[in-house]
TrEMBL record:
This is General transcription factor IIH subunit 4. One of its GO terms (cellular component) is transcription factor TFIIH core complex. Residues 208-275 form the Transcription factor Tfb2 C-terminal domain. Keywords: DNA damage, DNA repair, Nucleus, Transcription, Transcription regulation. It comes from Hirondellea gigas.
Length: 280
């Protein structure tokens, strides 16, 4: 999964559709993504995957705020502990201190808490209205960029941003590989505490409309093909339609108008079959 890509034309790093989807995930899912990617490389770093997993699972039984001794740890586990420190999973003053403290982050993602409980930890700042307007209080630069993915920024003040979700803005997000459920989950996860008093948190009219805009893109499916029509005899039409169907290249058929469409790939075989049938 590539989160960023270097554009040859722009000569700068650009985020991919997968990267957009990653940014809309909840925090625990983002952390687990990095953990899994890191664990795929532990063997290349000269570490034992089994030992790393065992130590990671032991942290799930640790207590927040309590210090733990590094005595008895081999060099391999101490190296792994330094990597966990870089992830923010443990607090370690310095390697020679001999003690470490598990952070709340590692306890939350390894304790098996429900996703809904993890989402409540996030201090939301979004107020959602049924007219598709979003108010973001004290948004960060990252949040402004995220909201711009699927909504239209109307105005921005020092401590307030106002945007509107529209058909065009959602369509723009869908073209980048983001799905409606991810947008709705993001709005729900970052909703203001006052919004969490309502059920559902995201207004039903807003959530339903976002999903309907997604379904609009699935109404039609374009397939290149070749049209056959003007059959004089019904048996000629049936002969060619049955042949195309048997080859798996029949896209559309209408016996009343005696028209059929075959895929562009199967056009040559159908055309040759028809020529041979005409000569008999």
């Amino acid at each position: 999964m590539v989160l960023t890509d270097c554009s040859e034309t722009a000569h700068r790093m650009q985020i991919t559709s997968t990267g957009f989807q990653f940014l809309l995930l909840d925090r625990s899912s983002q952390v687990w993504y990095f953990i899994l990617k890191y664990l795929e490389t532990v063997s290349e770093r000269g570490l034992s995957l089994v030992s790393c997993l065992q130590f990671l699972f032991k942290l799930s039984f640790a207590t927040h705020g309590k210090d733990y001794s590094m005595e008895g740890m081999d060099e391999e586990l101490q190296t792994f502990l330094q990597h966990l420190r870089e992830f923010g999973f443990v607090f370690l003053r310095k390697r020679s201190s001999g003690r470490f403290y598990p952070t709340r982050l590692v306890l939350n993602i390894t304790s098996g808490e429900k996703k809904s409980q993890l989402m409540e930890v996030v201090s939301g700042n979004l107020v959602l209205e049924t007219n598709f307007r979003i108010y973001a209080y004290n948004p960060s630069q990252l949040q402004v960029a995220l909201l711009a993915i699927f909504s239209d920024i109307e105005c921005r003040f020092p401590n307030l941003l106002v945007s509107t979700i529209s058909r065009q803005s959602v369509r723009k997000a869908l073209l980048k590989g983001i799905v409606a459920e991810q947008i709705i989950n993001y709005l729900r996860m970052h909703a203001h505490k006052q919004m969490r008093k309502f059920n559902p948190v995201v207004p039903k009219t807003l959530a339903d409309q976002i999903q309907l805009w997604e379904l609009e893109r699935e109404r039609l499916e374009y397939t290149e093909g070749v049209l056959y029509k003007d059959f004089i005899l019904q048996q000629d039409y049936a002969l060619l339609a049955n042949f195309a169907k048997s080859r798996g290249v029949l896209v559309y058929a209408d016996s009343k108008s005696r028209t059929l469409v075959v895929s562009k790939k199967g056009h040559t075989a159908v055309k040759n079959f028809w020529k041979e049938a005409q000569t008999k």
